[in-house]
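Appendix B: complex inputs.
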Amino acid sequence: MEQLKTLDIPLFAHQPAPEVLMTFYRDRADGPIHALEFAVIDNGVAVAEVKAIHLKGVPQSKLRSHIKNVLGILNAQFQQEMSVSQGRQPAKLCPLCLQEGETHD
Amino acid sequence: MTETGRLSPQQWQLAQARAVGFRDQLVHWTTNKATGNTAFYPELFWLAAQLIEKDADAFCDRAQAIFDEIDAYGQEPQLDSDWLQELTGEKDSFYFSTDILVSELPPLPGQKRGRKPRPPDERDVVEAVQQAISEAEEDVRAIAYEESPSDWILKIATALKENHGTADFGLLRKATGLSPGALLIGLLLGHEQWILRQVAFYGEVEVRSRNTAE
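Resulting structure:
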C-alpha cells in the first residue's frame, strides 16, 4: 500500500506585515475605558509591547493624542505604516490591577 | 478712573501696564509697516484685530483643555466608535471573555413585535366623525321624545310650590328628578309661570314663581 505523502509548501513571497493591536480594558464595547495596552504582532507573535496605563481622569482629547503618539512612535520604530486593530478585555483582567493585587498579597 | 472692579490694585496696575505695552508695540509695528499717514490707522486696527483674535483663540483653547480635565476628573474616558473606525479601518477584531456573555432576551410573541401602525385612512376618519355627530343628534332627540315637556313643566311647578315658590337649579334637579337638559327645556318652555334670575355670570340660577314674585 502506497503511503500518503505530506508536503509542506509555504506561501512564497508572502510576508504578512506586522500590525499594532490596541487592547482596551473595558466591560462594555461602548463603555468607559479602564486601561489601554499596545502590542505589535508579527505573524501571530507579539514582538513589542507598550505597557498598559490606567485612564482614570484622562480627558478624551488627551487619550486620542496619546494613541496617535504611540502609533507614530511604533511606526517610526518599525519603519513602516502598520495597520491597527483593536481588542477588548474585561476591566478585571487589567494587568496593572492584577499586578497590584499580587504585590499586596 | 479709580474703579478696579474685581481686580486688586496690584492686578489692576499689571493689567494697565500690559495694555500700555500692547498699544506701544502695536503703534511701533504699524509705523514700520504703514506707508504714509492715510494708511496708518487701518493698518493699526487690522494688526490689533489679528493679535486680539490670536490671544482670544489661545485663551479659549487653554480654557477648553482645563474644562476637559475638570470634566474628566475621577472618570474613565470613552472613545467615539467613528474615530476608532477611522484609525483601524473596517477590520476590527474583538476578543471577549466568556464571563461577560449576556444571555439572549426571550423572544416576544408575534403580535407584540414592533410593527409600525398604519396611518388612519381619511375616509374612515370622516365617516367616524359623521357617525359621532348623528349619534349626538339622536341622543338629543331621544331626550326630547322621552316625556312630554308639559310633564316637565308640571314637575317644576310642583317642586317650586313645595319650596315656597323659590328654588335654585340644583334643588329643582333633586326635587323633580329630571335630567339637566330636560329641566332646562322645561324652565324655558314654562317661562310664563316663573322668572329665571342669575346674580353673577357663573353664579347659581334662581327660579322664582311669578305668583311669589308678584
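The domain at 19-27+34-104 of chain A is CATH 3.30.420 (Nucleotidyltransferase; domain 5).
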